[in-house]
Amino acid sequence: MNRLIIIGNGFDLAHGLPTRYEDFLCYMLRNALLADDSPSLFSIKRNPPTLSISNEKDTIRKIDTIDGFNKYQTGLSHYFDNPTTNNVFLRELYQNRNNLNNWNDIEYFLFDRLKRLIKPTSKYDLTNLKLDDINKLNSEFDQIKTHFHDYLSDIVLGKIPNKINKNSLFNDIFNSRPVNKKPHQADNVYILNFNYTNTIHLYKDAFALYNNVQIIDIHGQLNSEKNPIIFGYGDERNDEYTLLENINRSEFLMWLKYFSYLRTANYKSLLNAIKIDFEVLIIGHSCGLSDRTLLSTILNKRECKHIRIYQYGQYGGYRSVLENISRHMDKSKLLSDVEQYNSEYECPSHNFK
User: Fold this and answer.
1) From its phi and psi, is residue 309 left (phi > 0), alpha (psi between -120 and 50) or beta?
2) Which residues partner with 214 through β-bridges?
């Protein structure tokens, strides 16, 4: 039996890396407050414009939550105007900042905006189609993607050490005994990495017992021309997606993930990994709708024999992932294949210490 380990953003967060959507948004808002040529899509006017903030810089650099930014900006509202941006999509994200918690929410927010731009009554009636608006939305989302890539490259990568602690608790998870198999090792281990960082690559030594370990960076790698990052929506099974497809305009499909999957051999490598019986370990992935098509392909396969969720926190973390999985899986298969909640399957945090 093979083992497929699904790695999501929670894995990076467990290592203390600022890879949340909130971290990225705070980064741009901090830079806008500092106004020192640091990259940002926001601007914040000072009152008066010549106001010096030299004594506030250290305080501003420590802001790491949206709530913290709101409190700081509100407390000094007579000195700072509200953030503004020419990027309309980002402006809407900021206006909805209290309701958007992770990158899956952002990608689905894009899908929602695309649907709003569709006004025709049928695929043959394009009279109300706003192509200028869709081109603007695509351009704005690409701008955000570029800034996020640069944020990860310039800020986050520098926080990843050169090697991992050999006693990391994640080593125990990766080497746990396969279900219904007498030998300690799985036949082959495939790691499906949804993150853009190389954090999981630091654990290669943890799989020394296995003959074949392959890491599949399914969403790309930072600063890679051969495997560029994939950012967009992946819920092609949504009924409303058919409407986008039937419009017969490529502008509406620019951020569709499965087209990007075919740019590299990663997706084919995944399919090869799940040709024979396999079990799934889910670590740090919310399994949200933004990756629905890919996750459905994996979890509904007849060869998928067992699914174990490693949750963050107690039952609430397990339940959240389970609810998301239920949107991808046949319900009878979910009940038979998903392992019941076990408090021992709680993911560790901050293992770089």
Assistant:
1) beta
2) 190
Residue 126's region, left for phi above 0, alpha for psi from -120 to 50, else beta, is: alpha
For 223, left (φ over 0), alpha (ψ -120 to 50), or beta? Answer: left
Number of residues assigned to the chain: 353
Distances (CA, A) of 320 to 18, 29, 139, 222: 22, 30, 33, 29
Fill in the DSSP letter of residue 279: E
Residues sharing a CB contact under 8 Å with residue 316, sequence separation 6 or more, in sequence order: none
Give me the average pLDDT of each 10-residue run along the chain (353 residues): 93 91 93 88 90 89 92 88 94 86 83 77 57 91 95 92 70 71 68 95 76 91 95 79 79 88 95 95 92 94 95 91 94 94 83 45
Crossing angle of helices 103-116 and 21-34, in 10° steps, is 80
Rg (C-alpha) for the chain, rounded Å, is 22
Angle between helices 88-95 and 131-151 (to 10 degrees): 70
Please tell me the predicted confidence (pLDDT) of residue 179: 67
Q: Which residues contact 169 (CB under 8 A, 6 or more apart)?
A: 348, 351
What's CA 12's distance to the chain center, in Å?
10
Long-range contacts from 109-117, C-beta under 8 angstroms, 24+ separation: 110/137, 110/141, 110/232, 110/233, 110/255, 111/233, 111/235, 111/238, 113/89, 113/137, 114/244, 114/252, 115/240, 115/243, 115/244
Q: Which two tokens stand for residue 152?
A: 């990860």
Inter-residue contact 306 to 334 (CB < 8 Å): no
